[in-house]
Amino acid sequence: MVNVDNLGVLFLSELVGTAMLVLLGCGVVANVALAKTKGFNGGFLMVTIGWGLAVFAGVIVAYASGAHINPAVTLGLVANGATEFGNAALGLTVPVDPVSVSAYIGAQFIGAIIGAVIVWLAYKQHFDQEPQAASKLGVFSTGPGIRNYAWNLVTEIIGTFVLVFVVIGFGGGRQGDGGLAALGALPVALLVIGIGVSLGGPTGYAINPARDLGPRIAHAILPIHGKGGSDWSYSWVPVVGPVIGGLLAGWLAIPLLPIIT
After folding, report:
1. For the domain that residue 28 is a member of, what is the CATH number?
2. 142-181 pLDDT, tens per residue?
3. Cβ–Cβ contacts within 10 Å for residue 160, how many?
4. Number of domains, the chain
5. Distance between CA atoms of 225 and 120, rounded to whole angstroms?
6. For the chain, how big is the Rg over CA atoms in Å?
7. CA dihedral defined by 156, 159, 162, 165, rounded to 10 degrees?
8. Structure pTM?
């Protein structure tokens, strides 16, 4: 039976952690992409480092819930055989069941939308003066360098597989408290930077359904001047790809990684 009080704390932890992740992650893209910012044209390496540090901050903030801050991580841990979510050291755990899984994923999507709205507030004047609709959308969501849905999907599957597989290999899932917090804030930040510089070129490496779909929804509903469309035709790729990658990592970690008892 789910402890409602614990689940509420874990829900809030995931919400705030994902909001911080998106605030700083989409924030670095805004700094690089929008007109007249101090970081304008800072380049892809600046974006990858910024996203790594965004994950660092998100993991720190969401420590109480195990810092999934990503539906692909949540589902990957389920596939790997996790029996509870949360932080046992703090006495904040809930059993893995449809309620807790839904709470985690719901918190992640809500947090991502909130983080994206705050980015828009921080860069409101620059959104107003940016002439390119594509640059505005790029702050919120990913897009492919070469649009080919099948191959873009493959890239997202591979990138997310690496993320979840390494987290489980370090000690998440069945080997201890599940989530990015099991890896540690600094190592997981370096892992995300590594994924970005190695595998991020084709699609911008969403590797997180909430990180992409949540801000895309914010882009669609916010009154952004001259924003254009939200590219819904591509929106399924950074959702389906990470889900598949996370599930594959969880399943394949069972035969490929040793279990530490």
Report:
1. 1.20.1080.10
2. 999 999 999 999 999 999 999 999 998 887 545 445 677 7
3. 31
4. 1
5. 11
6. 17
7. -30
8. 0.93
